[in-house]
Amino acid sequence: MPANHNEQLNWNRLIKGQVAIWEVKQQIQKRQQKAGGADSLDHAIITISRTHGAGGDDVAEKIAEMLHWQIYDKELVEYIAQSGQLRNRIVAPFDERKQNQTHNFLQTMLDKDALGIDKYFHLLHAVIEAIAEQGRAIIIGRGANFIVDPKHSLRIMITAPLDYRVEKIAHARELPVKEAKKVVSLVDSNRFAFVQRYFHRSANDHTAYDLVLNMQHLTPQSAALIVINCLETKLGVGKEKQPARTIVIA
Questions:
Q1: Looking at residue 60, which CATH number applies to its domain?
Q2: Which helix (H) or strand (E) holds 109?
Q3: Does residue 22 sit within a domain?
């Protein structure tokens, strides 16, 4: 959750600005569809799951920079879900069919022992669905890869060997290696537990991803380029349909 009131105001402005962009984009898409010129990436989504210390957030930032997309991380998604005003503005455009799909999904995922988490998960799921419906977004964590439509998304896992990740965390936080290993193990176990609790799936099930990247010998920029190429290939986006983009890997 946001640390202070100023951060809440900043996030409110960010979301309201993003929703305004969505509303304009919807009008443009309607005109494009009538003219037969809608872009295949208009409703595309990238979800990023990651093990701690592998650099998933850095890869997300590079992808967002190259594609000019919005990033929604764990904190932002949960903030929207828990803020009634923002949530309603984002989720309200859903039609009855989409809302029923969300309800059916929840009925399938939640068992009798999970009734206590129904409301939280319903809000979280609705927000992720709304973001995915608008497209051109990168959603980090929160099991988004289990929620979005695989036909319009690229679901990736960013990982690396444990020793590599521990070394990165130890260096970044100035921790002894032993303490850094505890941090990595704790964060990983919490993320895996979240997926198991809410989706009854294993985060290590690689069939839940379209692409798994080992970051040990990749830079965030080179990984981002791989992801973008994979997204365009999966969705069959022709180069001639995309705006000119120059990407230089240092």
A1: 3.40.50.300
A2: helix 96-109
A3: no
